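Q: Protein A?
A:
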Amino acid sequence: MNELSYLAQSAVPLLWPLLAVIGAYLHTRRSPSRHAALELWQRWWAAVALGLGSLWMTLAFLGAPEVMATAIGFAQTPFEFEIAFANLALAVMGFRAAMPATTARERITLGLGAGMFLWGALIGHLYQWFAHGDHAPGNTGGVLVHDLLVPAVMVVLARRSQRLAAEPAGLVARAA
């Protein structure tokens, strides 16, 4: 595999967080308040970075399990089917977190739930990399950043929303 092809394949998981950042940025440029902007950032991150990114992984693992196994440096096994449905659960969690009525506390819980799977996957990728020299594009690079940041950013944004909601109304209005 040439270097450009490797970089392109390795970067695919970063597409979803990038789209979430672009969408949130464009959507909040003229936001009426910090609270409204933060709400939009949370919804974009949950729906696109976690929801659509995980739905994409579901479809990829179900539709092309042999390609996905090769991309992560493994032989094809029933594992791809299981990972597809774990990603479907993450997609459902992301879409739930993106709903307007979802509370910051619920978003923190959903982010931590996603983190349990994705941070575990991150540890697994690092183990395969260092213990077995697995440098496949689906095992190193963008997937490491994705698995670390998607749930972490979700939790940080929701925690910031909790803190902003707890501030006295006058401070919130002056900061906007």
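Q: Protein B?
A:
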Amino acid sequence: MGSVRKASAWLGLVEDSDERYYDDEYAEGTETGDAWVTDPRVRVASESAQQEGRRIATVAPDSFRDARAIGELFRDGVPVIVNLTAMEPADAKRVVDFAAGLTFGLRGSIERVATRVFLLSPADTLVVSEEPAGRTQDGFFNQS
């Protein structure tokens, strides 16, 4: 296939006669209602991460009503990063109080990562937040 034909096929202007990029398993998988999945590797990566417990959720709630999503994720054992920068201060305080009760009740931990950003980690998650060993304060990049 010539380069012009390949470019036209990529743009969708002509029918692509080169079917080597698609296999039967992928073609069958698109009929199951997973129309939003365009690349089969995307699903494999998320499934393997879910099976090995390497998922971290990020939630940026707009109001206190979104606290339920935080609770459901944390209850399932998923570490949650909560970004409260878009919320009103009163609602943000309520969400932090909810998160503190949630982590206390499920024996997890809550840590402030940045201003109005918190990490909720389940009991079986180890969070390393120390300076790397051997790093000094007067390192190479300290130009003062």
